[in-house]
Amino acid sequence: MDRPHIAQYDACCLEVLAAEAAEVLAAGELVIFPTDTVYGLAARADREHPVAHIFAAKRRPADRPLPLLLPSAAALDEAARDVPPEARALADTFWPGPLTLVVQRSDKVHPWVTAGADTVAVRVPDHPLARLILRMAPFLVAVTSANLSDEPTPATAAECADALAEKPALVIEAGELPGTASTVVEFTSAGARVLRPGPITQEQIDEVLRR
Asked: Count of CB atoms within 10 A of residue 1's CB?
């Protein structure tokens, strides 16, 4: 697709925008939409072709898993299994917000999303449009930063679309975003460890885990 449809973010029209985005995702196409951190590049995660489209658009190595965005903490058990109590405590404290949890994937998350790994990265974004899109989509949604792999994420949605190797079908423009990626915490048999520092600090995480 040479020229994506660009829609302007309007807080008064969230349901219309979200419905359009969910429809495009259902058709197997890519969507760029704003989150509370950076612009996300999204595809339905229950079909292999849309997931492969994300990898191609980002020129992302095939062995690098994709994260999922969830509409709420209640959806955690759809994407994950055997979730540790510590992970639930962090989710209850910091979701919606800039904290990504790496946990065991459920059978509903296909290996093509996680590059064959048994774990999946999940987050609930603190952005009303993003969460509404995720609620309207009747499937799990893979969402990663809308940039070429290992390159900075552009500040606007239009710049994100221009930078990608393949163009999404829909781009929702909301101007410049904070541009700070989420904190990533992995849970293993040894406990929790921070894989990527971000807005949620180690001190904040430790405080919750000590309760």
From this structure: 11
The closest of 38, 21, 53 to 135, measured between CA atoms, is 21
pTM of the model: 0.95
Q: Are 123 and 70 in contact (CB under 8 A)?
A: yes
Task: Give the residue among 117, 130, 100, 109 at the shortest CA–CA distance from 65.
Answer: 117
How does strand 31-33 pair with strand 40-44?
Answer: antiparallel
pLDDT digits (tens, 9 = 90+) for 54-99: 999 999 999 999 999 999 999 999 999 999 999 999 999 999 999 9
Q: Within 10 A of 195 (CB to CB), how many other CB atoms are there?
A: 12
The SS3 call for residue 6 is strand
Residue 145 has pLDDT above 70, yes or no: yes
User: What letter represents residue 104's amino acid?
Assistant: Q
* Matching CATH number, 5-209, of 1.20.1250.20, 3.40.50.300, 3.90.870.10, 3.10.120.10: 3.90.870.10
Which pair of structure tokens corresponds to residue 161? 């679309």
Q: Strand order of the sheet with strand 119-123? A: 5-8, 170-173, 31-33, 40-44, 141-145, 68-69, 119-123, 99-104, 183-188, 191-196
